[in-house]
Amino acid sequence: MKSLSLIRTPAAGRAGGRRRRAASGAGWWTGGHGSGDEDTDGGTDTRTLPAPETSLKQQPDLPWNVLIYNDPVNLMSYVTFVIRRVFGYPEGKARKLMLEVHEQGRSVVWTGERERAEMFVEKLQSHQLLAGLERAGEP
Questions:
Q1: Which of 9-13, 114-118, 131-135 has the lowest mean pLDDT?
Q2: Which of 5, 11, 85, 121 gets the highest tally of CB atoms within 10 A of its CB?
Q3: Domains of the chain (ranges plus CATH)?
Q4: Which long-range contacts does 56-62 make (Cβ < 8 Å, 24+ apart)?
Q5: What is the C-alpha to C-alpha distance for residues 106 and 64, in angstroms, rounded to an integer?
Q6: Could you read off the pLDDT of 46-69 as tens digits, one per residue?
Q7: 68 strand-pairing partners
Q8: Rounded to whole angstroms, how far apart are CA atoms 44 and 38?
Q9: Are strands 64-69 and 106-112 parallel, antiparallel or unpaired?
Q10: CB 69 within 8 Å of CB 131
Q11: Radius of gyration for the alpha carbons in the chain, expressed in angstroms and rounded
């Protein structure tokens, strides 16, 4: 059995082949079509595109309501405690809001900007209360 030995010459190496193709104008990055329209800086297109039209007017951040919904699990005293702890309301206001939740099924406990409202909802939910938010003025 005969053994074959392969000899690699520098011209047949990968880097040499890439250099030749790039120098010929039909670079390996263009798919090798070589139409002559390619940039010589590596295929980078330097044309300036028009800026998209943007409106600087932003709608004002409408107020959001934080709601607590009635649930059959939590005691009324616990709901009062959580309202006082999260919002810092006095005992009387917290009790009034808790009774509204109990009797009407839900209560708006805070109104303000959305980011803060989301934070309050997360805090209420971390205390295992059913809470949500809605835009102020919606039913």
A1: 9-13
A2: 121
A3: 64-135 (3.30.1390.10)
A4: 61/113, 61/114, 62/135, 62/136, 62/137
A5: 15
A6: 777 777 776 656 666 789 999 999
A7: 107, 131
A8: 9
A9: antiparallel
A10: yes
A11: 35
Q: What letter would DSSP give residue 46?
A: -
**Single-letter residue type at 86:** V
d(CA 94, CA 83): 6
CA separation for the pair 95, 77 (Å, rounded)? 8
Specify the pTM.
0.57
| Helix residue ranges, H only, the chain | 14-23, 76-87, 91-104, 114-126
Longest dimension (CA), the chain: 101
**pLDDT value for 61:** 72
75: enclosing H helix or E strand: none
| Rounded Cα–Cα distance for residues 66 and 108 (Å) | 6
